[in-house]
Amino acid sequence: MGNTSSSQVQPPPNGTPPSACPVDPSARAAWLEAAAKEARPQPPPSSPPSTSTSPIPAPKPSKPRPLASERVTSSIPRAELSPNTTTPTPTSAPSHGQNAATSNWIYPSEKMFFEAMRRKNHSPDASDMATVVPIHNAVNERAWAEIKDWERRFASSQNRKCSGPKLRSFSGDSRKVSPRARWLGLWGYESPFDRHDWVVERCEGGGVEYVIDFYRGRGGGLAFYLDVRPKLNSWEGWRMRLGRLVGM
Hints:
Layout: E1 5-9, H1 29-39, E2 73-77, E3 104-106, H2 110-119, H3 129-154, H4 156-159, E4 166-172, H5 179-186, E5 194-201, E6 207-216, E7 224-230, H6 235-245
Antiparallel strand pairs: 1-7, 2-3, 4-5, 5-6, 6-7
């Protein structure tokens, strides 16, 4: 990905969903459903025909577990003036909220995620939520880590004046292709399957916008590549991008 920040994200182990930053999953439904499809176990091969004449009892279907309603607190600080941006999944859903003790963004629960996808006319499978939600969290955690690296390299003195950068707002639109992704597409590179825009607030109220392109991992499976960089819509964005280009 040249001099932008790219990283691969693998899904977390079952049962230990990491905390991560929130994201408007509006455009995320498509790749979440693809991830769920990849993760869904395939049915076992059919058994050879039996020569026995005795009836074979049909297996009893296992009772699905209820969707979890617990929410995970992310590792991303929320700016005090953050709007009540929607979070759970496709396009919009209940308010994301913040943790009163840490002021961090809070992720949607499995139940919230599932219901939001269903409201947006997707066809979620409840059994997929235990896989999809931790992937959603892990990918956003990786995105925030990449943003913090940019901030550490180019705004460390400014961010030392307070507790560090915070996420002010976010949005997602998979149909909106970034200029960089469009340029790479002209050279034969695969297009990202999603694009997000995050507004990060620095100390004293200043801020910078970031764009995140999400790519599928090579060879398929549950791996994602993130291309995270400041937007070129401000002098600060140009300064940071040029600084990394020349190795600052």
